[in-house]
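Incident review: delayed structure delivery

Summary: a single-chain prediction request sat in the queue longer than the usual turnaround. Root cause was a stuck worker, restarted by the on-call engineer. No data loss occurred. The affected request and its eventual output are reproduced below so the record is complete for anyone auditing the incident later.

Affected input:
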Amino acid sequence: MLLNKEQIDSIRNKKVTYVKNFVSLDREYDFNLMSKLLEETNEEVLVKTNIGKMRDVYQMMKATDFLPEFRIFHDFLLKTFKFKPDVRDAVELFFSFVTQSGPAHADIETVFIIGLKGKVIYRIFEDKTSDYEINKGDMIFIPTGIKHRVVGITPRIIASVGFFDRKI
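Output delivered after worker restart:
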């Protein structure tokens, strides 16, 4: 996992921060893996949209329970930014089978989004609108309360590492 001083300072200052090639991923995250996880874990999957089954965005909670490598992402970010642990902190997987766009929203937690498969645009609405392209291994930090929209350019899988401690 790679962060330079400028990126660390930007995150500590609660600025949206894009990191190209944040992590090199050895495992292939694909829809066969997602299907296998669903079958083996009995983990509940939440559907985030209601516009038709193939166009839905799916959310798998507690990714660290069945993909232990995500505990490394969580612990690295927790320790680097000295978050106070909260029972709601989590790594979640979001995936969709087709291109689609979600609604604009602001999260109640601070999130680090890591691309696992596909191409996704994160449109950030601040003083000006900015688009960030997230591919496999890329990361974007989005502070609590920053309005954004997710535009899946291809079918996609992302990991969202969320922290409820506001201090950074």
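Verification: The mean pLDDT is 89.
Action items: add queue-age alerting; document worker restart procedure.
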